[in-house]
Amino acid sequence: MSKTNPETKTNAEWRAILSPEQFRVLRERGTEAPGTGKYNKHTGEGVYGCGACGTPLYKSSTKFDSGCGWPAFFDALPNAVRQIQDNSRGMTRTEIVCSKCSSHLGHIFRGEGYPTPTKERHCVNSISLTFADKNATKSEDK
User: Fold this and answer.
1) DSSP secondary-structure letter at 59?
2) I want to staple 45 with a disulfide (CB 3.0 to 4.6 A). Which of 23, 125, 134, 139 is the partner?
3) pTM score, two decimals?
């Protein structure tokens, strides 16, 4: 399989580069426990990227404290995430995945009353993210 296109990685290739918990969330559509992720209360200025392939996903200026226990954003970078209807767990939700590698990020919730420009909450697993600090020369560890 190609090493340059993450979309074509096999599960074995993903397992070789992701931790078991990253693999569970990013590739098996899992969810980390609320309030446990390192980016939930993170307030640095920069760009959040995909924890699997590094693609830039969200500007820190779109992050807000929703109190939900996971990082929340009101908008993604253009064409950075794909939305997929998710009918699991007895409800209809909108799953969000990285546009480049299709790794699971979380879900979008709409119309919850948050005072955001989009009226959306992108509820993202911290383990699905990396962070590139605006004032640093390299990304924080995954």
Assistant:
1) E
2) 134
3) 0.88
